[in-house]
Amino acid sequence: MEIAEVFTEEQKSIARFAKAMGHPVRMYVLDLLSKQSCCYSGDLTEVLPIAKSTLSQHLKELKEAGLIQGEIEAPKIKYCLNQENWKLAQGLFKEFLNS
After folding, report:
1. How far is residue 29 from each of residues 1, 12, 97, measured CA to CA in Å?
2. Does residue 24 register a pLDDT over 70?
3. What is the dihedral of CA 85, 18, 25, 43, to 10 degrees?
4. pLDDT at residue 55 above 80?
5. Domain residue spans in the chain?
6. Taking the CA atoms of the chain, what radius of gyration do you get in angstroms?
7. Pairing state of beta strands 68-73 and 38-40?
8. End-to-end CA distance of the chain
9. What's the pTM?
10. What is the CATH number of domain 8-97?
11. 83 alpha-carbon distance from chain centroid
12. Which residues pair with 20 in a beta bridge?
């Protein structure tokens, strides 16, 4: 048996979400997006004291984990929560933490 066969899909998903959430900047972005429909990457650079390239890396991590989605509205990118995966993550964390 391979090690990958030991883990459930739920365990893999929650680990992917947890890894993506493992930085205060990413938690800030998720918190912000959970309270409003969307935001633009340029708006984030005005409130976060980090370089645009650093912010881009954080947004990329959240996007690759499926927690946010981006839509290009040249010259900006609009980011929103991926509602389906956000609800999935909420359910997985709730189930895990209550077990």
Report:
1. 39, 23, 23
2. yes
3. -10
4. yes
5. 8-97
6. 15
7. unpaired
8. 27
9. 0.89
10. 1.10.10.10
11. 11
12. none
